[in-house]
Automatic annotation (TrEMBL):
<keyword id="KW-0805">Transcription regulation</keyword>
<dbReference type="InterPro" id="IPR018060">
    <property type="entry name" value="HTH_AraC"/>
</dbReference>
<keyword id="KW-0804">Transcription</keyword>
<feature type="domain" description="HTH araC/xylS-type">
    <location>
        <begin position="234"/>
        <end position="332"/>
    </location>
</feature>
<dbReference type="InterPro" id="IPR032687">
    <property type="entry name" value="AraC-type_N"/>
</dbReference>
<dbReference type="GO" id="GO:0000976">
    <property type="term" value="F:transcription cis-regulatory region binding"/>
</dbReference>
<protein>
    <submittedName>
        <fullName>AraC-type DNA-binding domain-containing protein</fullName>
    </submittedName>
</protein>
<dbReference type="GO" id="GO:0003700">
    <property type="term" value="F:DNA-binding transcription factor activity"/>
</dbReference>
<dbReference type="InterPro" id="IPR020449">
    <property type="entry name" value="Tscrpt_reg_AraC-type_HTH"/>
</dbReference>
<dbReference type="Pfam" id="PF12625">
    <property type="entry name" value="Arabinose_bd"/>
</dbReference>
<keyword id="KW-0238">DNA-binding</keyword>
<dbReference type="GO" id="GO:0005829">
    <property type="term" value="C:cytosol"/>
</dbReference>
<dbReference type="InterPro" id="IPR009057">
    <property type="entry name" value="Homeodomain-like_sf"/>
</dbReference>
<dbReference type="Pfam" id="PF12833">
    <property type="entry name" value="HTH_18"/>
</dbReference>
Length: 339
């Protein structure tokens, strides 16, 4: 089951280029199993599976991995070719240098350049030419794909110390906390990711058969399904589990399971830009959205499944999360919203 959800903002941002190219975006949404009606709800979210399908539908329809947002077309298969090159690299530093060399073969160039300092390393976005990126999706995607590809290749998340953006904080800036799990800085001189330089020496542990499997759903899955298994956020989500009908573990128990003190865990969650309460709330929200996509489940049952003893309390919480009632949300998913 796919628990994680993706904000409506990213769905609309991903379709900007297709819309400009005159492609029927309603068809792309339906291919992904997303009701266009759902997007009328301002705070709607889709499952990570639906979002992956949407990415792939857009890439295939446009034969452009930049989805009409970049300074040029990037034919489908470019990312896979870059991956075939970097799989033979000995470590992460070699991966990022090889990927840069590959990307600079194309004009105008779209890449990330590795800068190594005393104790830290930075991946700095380098984009030549004009881009069609009013919602910042193109630049966000480059950061996410390079970061998560590197993490996947070395089999551990590259923990970020800072994410910088050369533009003002956008209206959806709060979502960045759950994408990058680190302090954020807007209106910076460059768009870049900073991490501890020790990660550069981490060996590449993936092989070619694993890469072939990985490429069946990438880079779509890199954008929609972050591997959070080694972040404290991800480990807490796993410990909480999916059964909200029983009483949830408390913070002290979680800290003990993670072999840390409550104070240290609080500090680590603050570094990841979240809190224990927020992790629980967002997990409940994502589970509720998942259950609402199953028409056989009555809404009162869903309330109980996500840990609410009173349906009215669930209705209030869900409206706070999405701006609408569970019933209205379900109608949007089914494509039955009234204008």
């Amino acid at each position: 089951m796919s628990e994680l959800t993706v904000s409506r903002h990213f769905v609309e941002a991903a379709l900007v280029g297709a819309e400009k190219a005159g492609i029927d975006t309603h068809t792309l949404l339906r291919e992904a199993g997303i009701s266009p009606d759902l997007l009328k709800i301002e705070m709607a979210r889709v499952s990570s599976t639906q979002y992956s399908r949407l990415m792939q539908a857009a890439w295939n329809a446009m034969d452009d991995e930049f989805m009409g947002l970049g300074p040029r077309r990037c034919r489908t298969g470019t990312f896979a070719t870059m991956c075939a090159l970097v799989i033979d690299c000995p470590n992460l530093e070699a991966v990022y240098r090889q990927a840069f060399d590959f990307c600079r073969l194309f004009e105008p160039m779209v890449t990330m350049k590795l800068e190594v300092e005393d104790k830290t390393a930075r991946l700095v976005t380098a984009i030549e030419g004009d881009i069609n990126d009013p919602m910042h999706f193109f630049r966000e995607s480059i950061l996410v794909i390079w970061h998560r590809l590197g993490s996947w290749l070395i089999g551990q998340p590259v923990e970020l110390l800072k994410a910088e953006f050369s533009y003002p904080r956008p209206p959806h800036g709060d979502e960045y906390r759950h994408i990058f799990h680190c302090p954020l800085s807007f209106e910076a001189s460059e768009t870049a990711l900073t991490f501890d330089k020790r990660f550069l020496q981490a060996p590449v542990i993936r092989d070619k058969p694993e890469m072939r499997q990985f490429l069946k759903t990438s880079p779509a899955d890199l954008l929609s399904r972050p591997d959070e298994s080694n972040t404290f956020t991800g480990r807490i989500r796993a410990l909480i589990g999916r059964d909200f009908a029983r009483s949830l573990p408390d913070f002290e128990w979680i800290a003990t399971e993670l072999h840390t003190s409550p104070q240290t865990l609080r500090r680590r969650l603050k570094q990841e830009n979240t809190s224990f309460q927020e992790i629980k709330d967002l997990l409940r929200r994502d589970m509720a959205i998942y259950y609402l996509s199953r028409p056989d489940l009555p809404i009162n049952d869903i309330a109980f499944r996500v840990g609410f003893t009173e349906p009215s309390t669930f209705h209030r919480a869900f409206k706070k999360w999405t701006g609408v009632t569970p019933g209205a949300y379900r109608e949007g998913e089914r494509g039955q919203l009234q204008d």
